[in-house]
Amino acid sequence: MNTLGEADPGTTPFRVCFVCAGNICRSPMAESVFTDLVAAAGLERVVEVSSAGTGDWHVGEYADHRTVTALRAHGHDATAHRAKQFDPDRFDSYDLVVALDRSHERILRAWAGNDADRSKVHLLLSFDSTSGTRDVPDPYYSDAQMFETVLGMIDHACRSLFHQLEPALTQGATP
User: Fold this and answer.
1) What's the CA gap between 158 and 138, in Å, rounded?
2) Which residues pair with 47 in a beta bridge?
3) What's the distance, Cα to Cα, between the start and end of the chain in Å?
4) 16 CB-contact burial (10 Å; exposed 0-12 / middle 13-18 / buried 19+)
5) β-bridge mates for residue 49, sequence order
């Protein structure tokens, strides 16, 4: 399967990683939402979803409690999440690396060792044609309402991304 999900029958699962700064707010939201979209479509065996941060300061920590609360209020579960840092040596194991804002996108592209890996990096909101912005704002220094707002942005963009990938993923899911 290539970066935007063109399936090759019998290949390994399509692997997507969502990346933010510390992997405790935005990227766990995206991972949880996208995982649930994959599960609802019955595509768990053809899609692997993960998340990571560009920084290492929260490695091993749970998702921010406001992230968990916002997700729970919308039927998602991130209670098992543990933050990890993105490993540039694993670029070849991903088909799509989704940055939550342009600073993450710049870091990821700088970490990519070649053009093929750089081509895997995309902004989440680039998949949402209705978004008036390119960056998902960091809610960490804000209140619970901002977490709700950010989750809404992430949910909408993840649905747009999933709908773009679904035809190829469904084709790859045949037994």
Assistant:
1) 17
2) 14
3) 16
4) buried
5) 16
CA distance 142 to 93: 34
- Taking the C-alpha atoms of residue 49 and residue 60, their distance in angstroms, rounded to an integer, is 18
- 26 in active site: yes
Catalytically annotated residue among 17, 20, 25, 158: 20
17 assigned to active site:
no
Q: How far is CA 101 from the centre of its chain?
A: 12
pTM over 0.70: yes
Q: Are 35 and 125 in contact (CB under 8 A)?
A: no
Nearest Cα to Cα of residue 23 among 111, 68, 85? 85
Q: Verify whether residue 138 is a known catalytic residue.
A: yes
Query: Looking at 15, 90, 109, 138, which residue is catalytic?
Result: 138
Going from the first residue of the chain to its last (175 residues), give the mean pLDDT of each consecutive group of 10, the final group possibly shorter: 44 92 98 98 96 96 97 96 97 97 98 97 95 94 96 98 93 57
